[in-house]
From TrEMBL:
Gene Ontology, cellular component aspect: mitochondrion
InterPro entries: RibonucZ/Hydroxyglut_hydro (IPR036866), RNZ2-like (IPR047151), tRNase_Z_dom (IPR027794)
Substrates-to-products reaction catalysed: Endonucleolytic cleavage of RNA, removing extra 3' nucleotides from tRNA precursor, generating 3' termini of tRNAs. A 3'-hydroxy group is left at the tRNA terminus and a 5'-phosphoryl group is left at the trailer molecule
Record GO terms (molecular function): 3'-tRNA processing endoribonuclease activity; metal ion binding
Top-level EC class as recorded in UniProt: hydrolase
Biological process per Gene Ontology, one example term: mitochondrial tRNA 3'-end processing
Annotated family: Belongs to the RNase Z family.
Protein name (database record): ribonuclease Z
Lineage, top ranks: Eukaryota, Metazoa, Cnidaria, Myxozoa, Myxosporea
Entry keyword Zinc: yes
Cofactor(s), by name: Zn(2+)
Keyword Nuclease: yes
Amino acid sequence: HLGSNIFARVLAAQSLEVHPSILLELDHFRILINIGEGFQRLCLQHKIPMNYINNIFFTNFDWKHVGGLPGMLLTRSPSIGETWMYGTTETFQLFNEINNTTNNSLGQCRTFQLNETDCFEDIRPFHLNISAKYYHKKCHSDILTIIIFKFSKTSGK
């Protein structure tokens, strides 16, 4: 059961300076989609504590999508509990390198490897016009850049 309240908060839309990052907020957990460089600044702007995020999906392995991972992992409190990360092999190699560099001080992060052919072949951005009454009050734009996912093989906890 995912809960009855689901909000999509666009933390960053595609531009020359930042890369797309979306936070899905459900009753009891949060799902962050991509962590571009400058993610810590976005958290400050949107008043989101980094310890608030407990599931992270990476749609691709390039710096646009994972560049904020090192800063996020180093800033979070190691005592926050479990964080799940979903992505490709390269994403977890980066995570392991960061964890080894910091003497395994990143807290409880669990990884779930997704194959690109299983999950990421059908990702495409589109624009959705939403009137003010339909989106979370903290989203300040009425044009949201949303990403459609085809997760054919994901598992629950």
